[in-house]
Amino acid sequence: MQGKYFINTYGCQMNVHESEKLAGILRSRGYTEAESLETADIVVFNTCCIRETAEQRVLGNLGIVKKLLETKPGLKVAVCGCMAQKPGAEKALKKRCPFINIIFGTHNLHKFGEYLDQLNQKKYIGEIWEKEEGIAEDIPVYRTSGVNAWVNIMYGCNNFCSYCIVPYVRGRERSRNADKICDDVKRLLDEGYKEITLLGQNVNSYGNDLGGEINFARLLERLSGFDYKYRIRFMTSHPKDLSEDVVKVIAASDKLADYVHLPVQAGSDRILKLMNRKYTQKDYLEKIDMIRKYIPHVGLSSDVMVGFPTETEEDFLETVNVVKRVWYNNLFTFIYSRRSGTPADKMEQVDISVKKDRIKRLIALQFDIGNREAKNCVGKTYEVLCDEWKDGKAKGKSSCEKAISFRSENDVKGQFVQVKITGTKNNQLKGELVY
Ligand code: SF4
Fold it and tell me: Does the pLDDT value for residue 1 go beyond 70?
């Protein structure tokens, strides 16, 4: 028995899933999970650098660990993920926090077990691979995501949006072998998982690097062919790459969720060009219309950024226009955050008070849309996959990603149930079981 681990995860679903792999590796070495940082023998920081606030939180929490080391000198500390992968980050981190025992990047996560094994002989192990080297398969995974299981289908990104650090820390696009993905999904369904979320920075490019042997639409077809009751979701889609073929496959299958997360980021063509997004507002809205043509009841969500360098009030109103026109189920709103090393960092920045005002207006708009949309749902019945049940209170999501709470005397976690919407509270849907 090696002791207890505590993993601090920052950032996106990709990182959450990678923490499941870190936990899998730790458990394969005999570690068990600690209830808290204070009771851990090793703490792992799986970091994110997409926004400055994420990095500041990591540094703040490393400060807490430094204090803890005064009373717990045997505590081991490991730092990995996107923040560690940034050029020069390993040296800077080690200088700022000399107590760290292991630093490794995104390309060598699968080596974590070897680094753990070396801890007995070495005080410090720092290894960052500058380049990705294919795809490491068969990493043990310790899943903690309830009825949903995440499955990577690809890694990296080729898009270089001008504000984004991801291509610099995650490398170029690499697609996993389709047979391996199908085997993973089949095994997870055998184990009882009811929802599978396929992960990639840009899932619509799946297969582009596999020599034309397969693409995302064909992969979805294969993954929707298993003889179980389940749902497949995916994220994230780049609007320029979402094809009619993929949408038709979603429309034709009852296993593929009627939901598309399609990040628009901004509505102004001038800003979209500066962002290097490679589509215009018109292109984007045509994609939305195409999706709705095949899947009329589709749930749509988006990421929207305000305060991108040089954004004017006029540009912002174009974003407002898109949000009003699309009428999203969910909107993930962000204030642009500078990332050194990206082209947008060198552009003329927007004042923070202007950014804050715009995001407030956008959130208020989406709240109003959400409120009206929620009221429209009253009286309708949805098939809900229950992902939480306690003392008669249940929660779950419809295929089109509507979050619904309801009462059930029986524990229905992991079951698909029919729920009729009876009311709303603060945009939340409440319903009752239909037998
Ligand atoms: S598509 Fe753009 S925003 Fe998304 S990961 Fe790639 S570079 Fe970043």
Answer: no
Question: Which residues make Cβ contacts (< 8 Å) with residue 136, sequence separation at least 6?
Answer: 109, 110
- The residue whose C-alpha atom lies closest to atom 8 belonging to ligand 1 is 164
Q: Which residues of 319-336 are buried (b: 16+ CB within 10 A; e: fewer)?
A: bbebbeebebbbbebbbb
Report the CATH number at residue 398: 2.40.50.140
Q: Judge whether 419 lies within some domain.
A: yes
In a domain, 333, yes or no: yes
Residue 39 in tokens: 């009771």
224 and 364 housed in the same domain: yes
Residue 88 counted as domain residue: yes
CATH number at residue 28: 3.40.50.12160
Look at the chain and report how many structural domains it folds into. 3
Write down the mean pLDDT value for the chain.
95
Are 372 and 408 within one domain? no
Q: 84-138, pLDDT tens digit by residue?
A: 999 899 999 999 999 999 999 999 999 999 999 999 899 999 999 988 887 888 8
Least confident range of 55-59, 177-181, 357-361:
55-59
Separation of alpha carbons 133 and 147, rounded Å = 32
| 389 and 370 co-located in one domain | no
Task: Enumerate residues lining ligand 1, CB below 6 A.
Answer: 157, 159-161, 164, 166-167, 201-202, 238
Q: Which residues contact 64 (CB under 8 A, 6 or more apart)?
A: 37
Beta-strand (E) ranges in 216-291? 231-235, 259-261
220 and 308 belong to one structural domain: yes
Q: Going by CA atoms, what residue is nearest to atom 1 of ligand 1?
A: 159
Q: Are residues 372 and 382 in the same domain?
A: no
What percentage of the chain has pLDDT greater than the value 70? Answer: 100
Is residue 141 one of the residues assigned to a domain?
Answer: no
Asked whether the predicted pLDDT for residue 219 surpasses 80, the reply is: yes
Distance 106 CA to ligand 1 centre (A): 16
The position carrying tokens 């009003």 is 324
**Is it the case that residue 2 has pLDDT exceeding 80?**
no
**In the predicted structure, residue 163 carries a pLDDT above the cut 60:** yes
**Dist. CA 40 → ligand 1 center (Å):** 35
| pTM of the predicted model as reported, rounded to 2 decimal places | 0.93
Cite the beta strand spans of 143-292 per DSSP E: 148-152, 154-155, 174-175, 195-199, 231-235, 259-261
Residues 84, 161, single domain; the answer is: no
CATH number of the domain bearing residue 156: 3.80.30.20
